[in-house]
Design a protein that fits this description.
- It is a single chain.
- The protein has 158 residues and is α/β, with parallel strands linked by helices.
- It has a domain at 43-96 and 119-158: Rossmann fold (3-Layer(aba) Sandwich), CATH 3.40.50.960.
- The protein has five helices and six strands, in the order βαβαβαβαββα.
- The chain has helices at residues 33-49, 68-76, 97-116, 130-135, 144-156, and strands at 24-29, 57-62, 83-91, 120-127, 137-139, 142-143.
- The strands form two sheets. Strands 2-1-3-4 form a four-stranded parallel sheet, sandwiched between helices.
- Strand 3, helix 3 and strand 4 form a beta-alpha-beta unit.
- The protein is globular.
- The structure holds ligand DLZ.
Length: 158
């Protein structure tokens, strides 16, 4: 669905489950760091706002978005981890690198979630331009980090 007219961070929390004892693993790509830091901050603030404990949020950095899949697997394999949230920003360049990374991450995170039977959230901002990315990490289209945290909470209540 196109998001050109949507703020991605609008959501209804009335049906959220109690997450005070849930453990969340965050995997954050360092590539485009100034943007992914904002995704991370949005995700953490959202989890805390809805009752998660700070000590139950585990934040791990990986070099780039391509590494999100392995990072997710290393966290998801721990039985006590309830959900994994993966955050990255891939901006289209002169080559097709973005296609390869985006498809690999989408496929990889799907596989990890199904393998460990727990939510593994695709919080990857994939855009044509830097401006479009900025709009989605705390700009006019909200913060996809917030959306990723909300998705994790919603899936824990599934
Ligand atoms: C190499 C690369 C490029 C060109 N662009 C991005 C990007 O826009 N966003 C991102 O998160 N990572 C990028 N990377 C790095 C790859 O994800 C990966 O870290 C390297 O190819 C090493 O495996």
């Amino acid at each position: 669905m196109a998001t050109s007219l949507q703020n991605l961070s609008t959501y209804d929390s009335s049906q959220f489950i109690d997450i005070s004892e849930k453990r969340f693993g965050l995997v954050v790509a360092a590539w485009n760091r100034e943007l992914t830091d904002t995704l991370r901050d949005g995700a953490v603030a959202t989890l805390l706002e809805h009752g998660a404990k700070e000590e139950n949020i585990y934040i791990n950095a990986v070099p780039g978005s391509f590494e999100l899949t392995l990072g997710a697997q290393l966290l998801a394999q721990h039985e006590e981890m309830d959900a994994v949230i993966c955050l990255g920003v891939v901006i289209r360049g002169d080559t097709k690198h973005d296609d390869y990374i985006n498809h690999a991450v989408a496929q990889g995170l799907t596989t990890v979630g199904l393998k460990f039977n727990k939510p593994v959230v695709f919080g990857l901002v994939t855009t044509n331009t830097l401006e479009q990315a900025q709009d989605r990490v705390g700009g006019k289209h909200g913060n996809k980090g917030v959306e990723a945290a909300v998705t994790a909470i919603q899936m824990l209540g599934f």
